[in-house]
Design goal:
By secondary structure, this protein is α+β, with helices and mostly antiparallel strands. Helix content is about 20%, strand content about 35%. The strands form 2 sheets. Strands 1, 2, 3, 4, 5, 6, 7, 10, 11 and 12 form a 10-stranded antiparallel beta sheet that branches. Strands 8-9 form a two-stranded antiparallel ribbon. The protein is globular and about 45 Å long.
């Protein structure tokens, strides 16, 4: 993904979020479709809910988020759900390995680096987005902490473990659909 797409995606989403004030918005005009709201679920992300986990909302962030745009052939979507459970991080990661495998090989990452012998999946997914910078969720980079990823470099799911909490493990289920880079798409044809 080129820097123009990254800048457009981030600027547009920040603008939408500012307009929404966290409640939600939808706009459609001349082939441009925008949405931002705080409505998402584990099933919409494409993963099951973790047994016994509760939605987690702190003073800075909502428990769920759903942002995106479509402009012609280009589209972007970022959707996620934040949870807390009394189970350990390793239990959460173990639970999600099989459901994530529906989307391809499951890559395990720690602080943005691969864990184990697999450094990149056959589809090209890596621990960091080499095509356009890091995905930022609630102001945090996707390169910190433990996570599992599955999918392709343009459409993937993340199960990310947040910083430890005294009450348990905070984690997020995230779906990311990035705009395809028209230059790299042309080269692959």
């Amino acid at each position: 993904m080129n820097m123009r797409h990254i800048f457009l995606s981030r600027t547009l989403l920040l603008f939408i979020a500012g307009l929404c004030g966290g409640t939600g918005a939808f706009a459609q005009s001349s082939g441009i479709e925008l949405h931002a709201n705080d409505k998402a679920s584990a099933s919409e992300v494409g993963l099951p809910g973790y047994p016994g986990a509760a939605l987690y909302k702190d003073s800075d962030n909502d428990a769920t988020f759903n942002l995106g745009y479509t402009f012609g052939d280009s589209s972007f979507r970022l959707m996620g759900v934040n949870y807390i459970t009394s189970d350990s991080a390793s239990q959460v990661l173990s639970f999600y390995r099989k459901p994530l495998s529906r989307y391809g090989e499951v890559l395990e990452c720690k602080d943005g680096k691969p864990v184990g012998s697999m450094t990149v999946t056959r589809s090209g997914l890596s621990c960091s987005d080499n095509h356009g910078g890091n995905v930022q969720i609630n102001g945090h980079s996707d390169t910190k902490g433990d996570e599992l990823r599955a999918g392709t470099p343009h459409e993937f799911r993340i199960v990310g473990i947040d910083k430890p909490e005294p009450k348990g493990t905070r984690f997020s289920l995230v779906y990311v659909q990035l705009p395809k880079d028209s230059d790299s798409d042309k080269k692959s044809k």
